[in-house]
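Bumping with the actual sequence this time:
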Amino acid sequence: MTQRPLAAIVLAAGKGKRMRSPLPKVLLEACGRPMVIHVLEALRSLQARPTVLVHGHGGALVQEALKDRELAFAHQEEQLGTGHAVQCALPALQGFVGDVVVLCGDTPLLTAEVLTALVADHRENRRALTVLSAELADPGSLGRIVRGVGGALERIVEFKDAAREPAIRAIREINTGVMVIDAALLPGALARLSSDNAQREYYLTDVPGLLLADGRRADVFRTADTGAALGVNTPGELAHAARLLRRRTLAGLMEAGVAVEDPETTLVDAGVEVGEGTVLLPFTYLATGVRIGRNCRIGPFACVGEGAVLGERAVVGPFVDARRCLLGPGAGVVGHAFLRDLALGAGASLGAGAMAPGPDAGGGRVVVGEGARIGAGAILEAPVTVGERAVLPPGAVPGREGEGPPGERTHG
């Protein structure tokens, strides 16, 4: 691949009226992450600098959610179409020489592999512009790829503009909303866009036709990954995308040696780490950011939530809800437990029905030392420390018996 600088423009200004949410559409979560985070993660491997994110509705919320990422932000005051959105990003690209990849912030199934293949194809064929397409059994209202002589790209037609062209609506190859273009040609092409169309908008999809009319090389790279084409516009489409993302996540875990007894009832969000040899039993849920070591056993009916870290050989039994918990190697929770802000030392165990409801306004956490044994039905109220190899009887409530000064209490 010819090495040229690469920049990116992420279009994230849509309000998403059909979602009926107070949040900007791109911040709605799929598989534990906002949709736009999935897009940015797919883009990461391309090392696009700069990456410009165009926001509109709820722009302050979008910037706050993405403040820790290396992004330039551009504001689209009025939503006048995708071409207009890219125009809003141009000032942030001033002086940039190279290729620009343009993509949408509501396509959470887009992958790094697809983007890498697209850019490689664009550069190997020395084009001015390359459009990413996919062929769908039911292309719905997506824009159609119209090919001319020899199968080369002729134009892109938006579905609404093909109302009187049934032959075009019958085409199953669609525009995914992703393209790569030579940055030097982008401003001139955008300046020539017209809003004379069914939606009275400035379409980015008109740019390929303009460049072809200028004698520039523009064509299509069709991906076999139809998920790359899945934009999200309704709650139903969001649920479908999340389901596909979870299937992809589970498939990756199983390839890495994790045993998932029933993938249909096991939910694992994006960004979860699970070690080889770990067993996930039915109706287990692992939230984004959870880290689980090798040879653990989780479930069934277990919820391991944000901030949880499990060492090797840790066991989380049935009907356990654990968040912000640290389980050391070989530590175990028998089952039917509600746990918050708990550190369970190596080899320690909690009996069935144990509770650590988390800190009150005073803060602190529950710390259980290595090898300790906590009986069934114990209640561990933060802040409290249970010493190494201590044994608490069933129903114990350490700290209520008056041992230790106010504040953090020690037992064992």
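The tokens above came from a reply further down the thread. The radius of gyration is 26 Å.
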